[in-house]
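Cross-posting from the chemistry board since nobody answered there.

I work mostly on the small-molecule side, so proteins are not my area. We synthesized zinc ion and want a rough idea of how it might sit in this target. Sequence and SMILES are below. Is it possible to get a predicted 3D structure of the two together?
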Amino acid sequence: MILTIDIEFLDQTSKEIKKLLSLLKKHNAKATFFIQTNQISKHKDLIKLISKNHEIGSHTENHHNLQKIDKKILQNELVSSKEKIKRLGIKCKGFRAPYNLLPKSFFQISKKIYEYDSSQTSFYFPFRYNYRKYPNKPYKLSEKMYEFPISNFTVFKFPALLSFLKLTYPLIILPRLDKKVFSMHDYDLKKGIFDKNASFFVRFMQKINSGKIAFYILEKLIEKQEKVISCEEFLSDLRDKEQQIQ
Ligand SMILES: [Zn+2]
């Protein structure tokens, strides 16, 4: 399983993130943390700590809906967030868009900045999108760019999201995800509603079974996997295989 975590509320979730790091260490698991970088200046030490064992990617600077901003601001969101991570001495290869929403011009701009994107999904998200026909596993988008879509599982194409597992707990059998991408948010791990401007559905998803139960579900899910790795690790495997074929 490729584990990805969007980090948006570090002011409130730093304690939970430290607990998550211990959990990952206990299971020898690695992950990619996509950071909303306007939090970096206040949390440099924690981000450096994460980067010791895990990959850091960009989740933009300000978490705008990228479909609603102009090209210049988009370019700036993509470049400045990567630069901020680099200034901490951390490599930043990957990107994830807020709300998994991409504008048409995205790949044209991002391929010059990032090595891979992890914004696409392959499932239905109520009131937002229906991408059930999209690929379900990492693939090569173009010469230099890879895509790590957030996966689905079972014939029903359930979303590989911790928020979905929280919503359906304990009704759904935790899946083995092999080469698929699983995603979660920092706020899944803490009780409360963080994004007060979010839709009713999103606020409900944030609230249900957050905190301790979310940690429990995540640990059980990790135990089911043969291996839990970051996007970066999977990417280097993909490239190795490509070279062998050539
Ligand atoms: Zn986000």
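Reply from a structural biologist on the board:
Welcome over. Reading the output above for you: The chain has one domain: 2-245. The mean pLDDT is 95. Happy to explain the token format if needed.
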